[in-house]
Amino acid sequence: MPTLTYETRRGELLAYFDRTAARAWERLTSDAPVSGIRATVRAGRDAMRGTLLSWLPADMTGLRLLDAGCGTGALAIEAARRGADVLAVDISPTLIGLAHDRAAGLELRGRVDFQVGDMLDHGFGGFDHVVAMDSLIHYQPEDVAGALAGLAARTLRSIAFTFPPRTPLLAAMHGVGRFFPRGDRAPAIVPVGEGKLRRLLAAEPGLRDWRPGHDRRVSRGFYTSHALELRRP
After folding, report:
1. Domain 4-231: what homologous superfamily?
2. 72 neighbors 98 (Cβ within 8 angstroms)
3. How many CB atoms are closer than 10 A to CB 113?
4. What's this model's pTM, rounded to 2 decimal places?
5. pLDDT level of residue 23 (50, 70, 90 thresholds)
6. Whose C-alpha in 19, 85, 100, 161 is 20 to 30 A from the C-alpha of 79?
C-alpha cells in the first residue's frame, strides 16, 4: 500500500512533469538540439534505456511488460517492437499524450497501451517483466522497497529499476540546486547507498523469493543512475 510520503511526492511529480517541465521534457526526449548539460542527460538516459532493454528477452512475443513511469514511451515502443504486450503507465497526461503521438503510425510486432495512472495500481493486473527507469528516484528508499514488493506480487520473471547512487558528485549537484528559485526546481531525487538499498530489499517480506540479477551504473556528465535487476529463482 502506498505510504503518505509516496503519495505526497507523487503529487509533486505530477505537478512538475505535467506542467512545469512538460515542454522541456518533450524536447529532451526528442532529437532536437539541446544544451550541453541536457545533452549529457539525454546521452545518459539513452545508455540506461539500452541497458535495461538488454536485460529483457530479444523476442518478447507473448510476454506482458509494465513500463512503470514510461514518460514519452521510448522503452515501451522498443519492447513492443520485440513483440511484447506493453502496458505503459505514467502519472502525467501530457507525457502520455506525447507517447501516443510518437507511437502513432509505427509498425510494431506487439502492442502498447499507454495509460495515465499510478504505476503501483493493482488494477493493471499481472506481468512477466517490469521496468521502472528513473521513476522511483524521487522516493524515499523505504518507499522504493515497498513499491518493488507490491510490483513483485504481480510479476512472474523480472523487475529492473534504477536508483540515484549516493556519490560526492550528486551531493554537490544537489547543493547547487538549492540556489535555484523554488519554482524552477525539479522535485529532488533521493540518493541512496547501494549497500543500504540492497539491505532494505533483502529485508522486505514481499521480495523474499526474489534474487539480485544484473546491475550497472551509468554516468554521463550530469546524469548518474544505477540499475538493478531482481529475478525469481
Report:
1. Vaccinia Virus protein VP39 (3.40.50.150)
2. yes
3. 12
4. 0.92
5. confident
6. 19
